[in-house]
Automatic annotation (TrEMBL):
Source organism per UniProt: Xanthobacter flavus
EC numbers, comma separated: 3.1.1.5, 3.1.2.-
Keyword Hydrolase among record annotations: yes
UniProt-recorded name of the protein: Acyl-CoA thioesterase-1
Residue stretches making up the SGNH hydrolase-type esterase domain: 26-185
Amino acid sequence: MTGLIAAFLVFTFASGAEAATLRIVALGDSLTAGYGIPRTAAFPARLEAALRAKGLDVKVENAGVSGETASQGLARLDWSVPQGTDAVIVELGANDMLRGLDPAVTRKALTEIVQRLRKRGITVLLAGMKAAPNMGRPYREAFDKIFPDIAEAEGVLLYPFFLEGIAGDQALNLPDGLHPTPEGVDRIVSGILPMAEQLVVRARETAAR
């Protein structure tokens, strides 16, 4: 546990504050939904377990829809992220890339998602994606800049590459080569966990204002 998070938890305990369970929504595609694996092994469930193991009182909801693009995520944003949500992990864009959609369309949709969440006072962690090598250099350069650019412009947390450590690893992916096995999900959770802890801290700070 980082010093920042430990200090925050100590302060909360010492002050006698009884914080409610922090509600996090994982808004994404099949990588969030848990395509091909039990829902209990999917990213939201495994992340919730990892955060709780750190002593953090959280609930991570699975709002993943297989095959979804960023624009489709935007279209269902309001009902997928209900009132009372404290934080959202946005994991969208992989299907845009696989379909070769214009990166400008993906950028616009993701930007609007982040802006609308922020206007609601919801803390955001943007989970980045990278274009496959076969997409060609111009496409890769345009697509790969989307996530860091939005994070910087909107002042939200960024995990640069959601599939860091598992992309291309046959042992950590299903036979389709695109979706993680339960072991692959655990690798994703291990990588993103420090940023998820920061998300919890920021969300708690926002709720306390």
